[in-house]
Amino acid sequence: MTKTFSSEQIDEAAEALRNGQLVAFPTETVYGLGADATNPEAVANIFEAKGRPVGHPLIVHIANAEQLRLWVREVPESAEKLAEAFWPGPLTMVLSRNGRVAAEAVGSKPTIAIRVPDHPVALELLASFDGGVAAPSANKFGGVSPTTAAHVVDDLDDIVDVVIDGGKCGVGVESTIVDLTGDMPVVLRPGGVSAAAIESALGVSLADDVGEARAPGMLSSHYAPNASIELKTLEEVTAEDFTVEPGTGVIASVSVDVSPSWTLPVDATAYAKNLYAVLREADARGVKKLLIVPPSEGELLEAVLDRLAKAAAPRL
Ligand code: TXA
Ligand code: MG
Q1: Which ligand is nearest to the Cα of residue 191, counting in written order?
Q2: Which of 174, 175, 223 has most ligand 1 atoms within 8 Å of CB, for mutation?
Q3: In the predicted model, is pLDDT for residue 171 greater than 60?
Q4: Residue 23 pLDDT > 50, yes or no?
Q5: What pTM was computed for the model?
Q6: Ligand 2 center to residue 262 CA distance, Å?
Q7: pLDDT tens digit string along 56-114?
Q8: What is the DSSP string of the chain?
């Protein structure tokens, strides 16, 4: 399904946000399930729709870096540098917040996670709405994030008021989350911008230890399809691994004579673009067990390995 969108439709979606409704929209990473970040009831509906535990804070999306100061106590120099280098783009910053955002959106924390997405439809929606949009990924809690409008409809058809179709997401995994509230900046979740790129933009090293308290709602099992997952590197797999029993499937960077199987590139950035769609397809095909060979190189390697590890972790 590829619907085109018009400015009129985007204005209607912005109006829906003003009326407290939920609007699913495309970003460059994954689709988001958005609500007015200052409206407590609308934000509460996001948690309800996703089945997400309250206390797992949401990311607030804004139209441009100038708006950052409207949501935070102060804009540190590090935030200015990162906004300059990566916004619009797949980088979320955690900063000390002011009173503008609904407490429900941030799990009553004193901080806010905020970003400017790099997608023309998201930016037009944010400009038309003229405010902040709190949005998690538009999937059921713990599941695989949506990278097409059809994925959103599969997961949330009955609860979402508007779905804007902006085609397939370009990055395919979520944003990098960097916490700037401590003595040293620290990456809470690897994503579309690498840690090395952040370090070089800041000119300082990142802390390599993420304190438990600074990463709320980051669970070991996440981004998981229904199928159980076994991970093996290209060096570890043997010919027997590829003679699989019925009900099992393979995702690998080599093409194998197994059905169903999916071939994804060795480069993590290219792998990321199709990973979530393939995990969803495996579920749709009724695959019970997936053998996955991860990518082995590329800028998004850390992010893809993180998502695969969480998808393969014992389920909650
Ligand atoms: O690419 C993305 O980031 C997508 C698109 C829609 O923007 N959004 C996304 O949202 O992945 P979600 O809700 O699935 O993940 C948001 C993560 C949560 O795991 C939460 O721990 C973290 O952001 N987070 C939000 N607010 C935070 C805060 N104040 N401090 C620390 N972490 C926070
Ligand atoms: Mg999510």
Answers
A1: 1
A2: 174
A3: yes
A4: yes
A5: 0.95
A6: 24
A7: 999 999 999 999 999 999 999 999 999 999 999 999 999 999 999 999 999 989 999 99
A8: ------HHHHHHHHHHHHTT--EEE--SSS-EEEEETT-HHHHHHHHHHHTPPTTSPPEEE-SSGGGGGGTBS---HHHHHHHHHH-SSSEEEEEEB-S-S-GGGGTT-SEEEEE----HHHHHHHHHHTS-EE--BSS-TTSPPPSSHHHHHHHHTTT-SEE----S-SS-SPPEEEE-SSSS-EEEE--SS-HHHHHHHHTSPPBS---GGGSTT--SS-S--SSEEEE--TTT--GGGGSPPTTEEEEESS--S-SSEEE--SBHHHHHHHHHHHHHHHHHTT-SEEEE----BSTTHHHHHHHHHHHHSPP-
Atom index in ligand 1 nearest the CA of residue 92 equals: 3
From 121, 126, 177, mutation site for ligand 1 pocket: most ligand atoms within 8 A of C-beta = 177
Pocket of ligand 1 (CB under 6 A): 27, 29-30, 32, 56-59, 90, 92, 94, 106, 109, 111-113, 117, 135-137, 174-175, 177, 188, 215-218
Nearest atom in ligand 1 to 174's CA:
1
